[in-house]
Amino acid sequence: MQIKHFLKINDLTRKELEYLFERARWIKNEFKQYRRYWPLTDRTLAMIFDKNSTRTRLSFEAGMYQLGGNAIYLSTRDTQLGRGEPVEDAAQVVSRMVDMVIIRTYEHSIIERFAEYSRVPVINGLTDEYHPCQILGDIFTYIEHRGNIAGKTVAWIGDSNNVCNTWLQAAEIFDFNVHVSTPPGYEVEPERAGLYGTDYYEEFFCPHDAVKNADLVTTDVWTSMGFEAEEETRKNAFADFCVDEEMISYAKKDALFMHCLPAHRGEEVAAEVLDGPQSVVWDEAENRLHTQKALMEYLLLGKVEIK
Ligand code: CP
Ligand code: NVA
Fold it and tell me: Name one GO biological process term (predicted).
């Protein structure tokens, strides 16, 4: 079987992603019924983390155990990667010892270099540019709550970061629209977002205009990991970009609210919204587990028959 990596959401086709959603539904149901499902017995996942994580680490590590396999967490701080071992060398060594690798790091080019030298599938657990596993879970969550996302409008408020870029790529795959509103100077960078002439998104100066009639409103931290030095400047620049009750009132009445988490109540989102009736953030976090289990199964075993 040819190695498949998951570095960007469009590394898989719409058909493959839809298969993963279907599979995740089955895997989630088995899990909820406390039924054992161990297709990855004796398989090992290496988890290389250059940045902090709660959800991504936990969902991959627990997910791998729940599928019957093993996971090894490697922080850059205590591997030779942190002392300058070339990524290409690490990739050749790590991929001779394990069956799959997930990496959370800074520039996307690091993970691309790793994948080029890897003998086994590599999964992007977040880079400065993309967060494909997040959007996999988010779209699954949308489908669970509202059905098909095609033709719907997603409003992205705040920083045009890795999560935003991945929503934009997903829009092209699943045929929905994204309305983006960022402060001046923080707009979408199409090349960095991996977009080539797509007309699936529109930028709005005023966040209320972006949210108008949206089916889903979403945001993320103003300062992503790696940008801490800009925190104070960003707090000032983003002050009008808090998703609060007034802002979300411009969306459709049944609009959902999502946030990849961790969230800062009173900054990018008001507590009343994050903890309010439109928010599905806890389902969204949980679904990282189920969708990534489907992803790992697919990357290692290919399509399995859905019972
Ligand atoms: N949403 C997300 O990726 O969370 P963590 O940073 O906790 O992994
Ligand atoms: N945009 C955030 C997402 C964290 C899950 C970051 O990169 O820090």
Answer: citrulline biosynthetic process
- The residue whose CA is least distant from atom 1 of ligand 2 is 224
Residues with Cβ within 8 Å of residue 45, at least 6 apart in sequence: 60, 61, 64, 69, 70, 71, 72, 98, 99, 100, 101, 102, 296
Candidate CATH numbers 3.30.930.10, 3.40.50.720, 3.40.30.10, 3.40.50.1370; the one for domain 134-285: 3.40.50.1370
Residue closest to 8 by CA, chosen among 139, 162, 180:
162
pTM: 0.98
Nearest CA to ligand 2 atom 6: 224
User: Is position 134 annotated in a ligand binding site?
Assistant: yes
Annotated catalytic residue within 159, 220, 278, 290: 220
**Does 138 participate in catalysis according to the annotation?**
no
- Residue 306: the pLDDT is 63
Strands (E), the chain: 44-49, 70-75, 100-104, 122-124, 153-157, 177-181, 201-203, 216-219, 256-259
78 is catalytic: no
2: annotated active-site residue: no
- Assigned CATH for 14-131+288-301: 3.40.50.1370
pLDDT by residue (tens digit) across 208-252? 999 999 999 999 999 999 999 999 999 999 999 999 999 999 999
